[in-house]
Amino acid sequence: MDKIQSDCPYPGCFFCVMKEANPSKRRASVLKFFRELPSQDDDGQVLPVSGLWNTAMAHPNDPEFINLGIFECMAALIWKGLKNRRWLAHDQNIYVPYYAAHIIGSYTMNMEEFAECAVRAGVIPPLVELLRGRLTWVEQRVAVRALGHLATYPSTFPAVADNGEVLELATQLASSSLEIVYTHFYQFVDRRLDYHCGLLTRGMGGVEMESRKAEEWASQLQCWSLQLINCFAFKPEFLHDICKPDFLVKLPGMWGGLVNENSPAGVGLLRTICQSKVGRGDAANIPGTIDALCNIARSSDDWQYMAVDCLIWLVQDASTCHKVIDKVAPTLIDLADISTLGDYKKLGDMIVTVLQECMQQSGNSRGAISDQTKAEIDELLRSKQSLKLEKSMPKEDLHIKQAAALVVKLEGNSLFSSGNIAGAAEKYSEALALCPMKSKKERVVLYSNRAQCYLLLQQPSAAISDATRALCLHSPVNRHAKSLWRRAQAYDMLGFAKESLLDTILFINECSQSNDPDLSLKQNKVPDYAERLVKKQMRAAWLFREAALKHGGVRRAGDASDAAFGQEADDSEWETASESDGENGAATGGEADGETGWKNGGRQEDFCEKS
Fold first, then answer.
1. Closest CA to 413 of 391, 390, 430, 434
2. Which of 79, 190, 404, 506 is the most buried (most CB within 10 A)?
3. What is the distance between the alpha carbons of residues 331 and 453, in angstroms, rounded to a whole number?
4. Which residues pair with 468 in a beta bridge?
5. pTM over 0.85
6. What HEC string does 171-199 produce?
């Protein structure tokens, strides 16, 4: 190719080609450039490829390069890197396969016709080789992204599925991606490949920045693998290969960590699986998966509604209902007062209807539902009937019921103040029975108070149930700060780090926006006890925690032992509600709004460190 500008040191420079004012000449030059680039061995090849990457990221819907052979060029460059290791090690060519796969993924993420062009250009085989791990994990990341985009479209999915290894490789990668990134990059600081560091930080930042970006990329590697599997999960013929027990039980724990903001990850794939009768049958046979879905459904997880979808579908299916109902019903009952969640506008009403139908179906199959579950569902149905009756009840009668409930609640506060926690819990139960169903604010307080009692009585599951009910009744949903804090502590007592962490973060967020003097943050300072719990759960829910426990902590050059990263830290500074107040109950009485002690596990300390 002739030089476009005489002062350019590179003959046929791509950037000079793009400066050509004549559109016809520029197209001809670009077409020739794409054809010749894979066969060239000149220095500086990474420059035009990285420039194309920038263009693809900024203008993924621009068809100009698609019609000139960019996909054929990128596929050839990937093959060249895979087959010619001498070329790959020369100059900065090590970057080329990464950028080439990234370009393919960027141009195919929005436009189906671009994806069809990519398939015809033969991009799938080299991408599969990268997915297999022929180079490193950074190329696996962009390969699984590109294949995920190609698998999204009806017209190109068959071409991806025809390669029988893709689903198996993606499943393996979803399960092992975090361990791969940890052992191949994160753990040994002095062994990190320079080009990995360059891609992660773009030369801006040191070891700490590299580690943060590696955690983010590891999350993407796992989540994008799950998205690729999700494309297969919509096809019943692939469910048998996806729904392996050892994979299903791990799925709810694949959440991508706090760095994941946009992907539903494991619970999203489970939701797709549960849309199919075959998938529901496989999921219902894994008790650990059902337990995890119940925890997500009663949590502050952004994808809570997806877990609720799964539970509802499992109960609605006659072939799976009897397997899961005793586990699922308590969770759905706790959520029965929720109004809006995700796309649901009347979720609580739907839950009541589903459970009612389940009760009716169980009459035809003996032993399908335990007596305890039947009693809990019956109680829910009676409460909903009471709500209907209250609509026609005279206001004077409702006021009498409210006044009676208030009297009993105050008795409960008094018992709590004197240290009689069990007696206080009973009084709050009596008050809930008296309180009108439509008095939502009062019922929020009563449920939240009883949750605090259950915390001190070492009954974290009951505390989670009551705190969840309070959060569902509250408006807006899941925003009652005291209930969030109590549920966070209860999840901590059960060892559910992720759920406890999410509740604590949301609790702090609510405090920062509250006008309540007991809740508002003094001088924007996060309470010490909340900060301690966040730190503890950040360690416990750390994305690389399992890999670090298995392989050891992060090592730097000259270190004789594992660094603090990835090692279990001393959590003795944190006290749960039961540890701090289990023996003497609460020190003082109810707060001004009638709620029991809620800070630091029941101690009536002022939010701003006043004793």
1. 430
2. 506
3. 20
4. none
5. yes
6. HHHHHHHHHHHHHHHHCEHHHCCHHHHHH
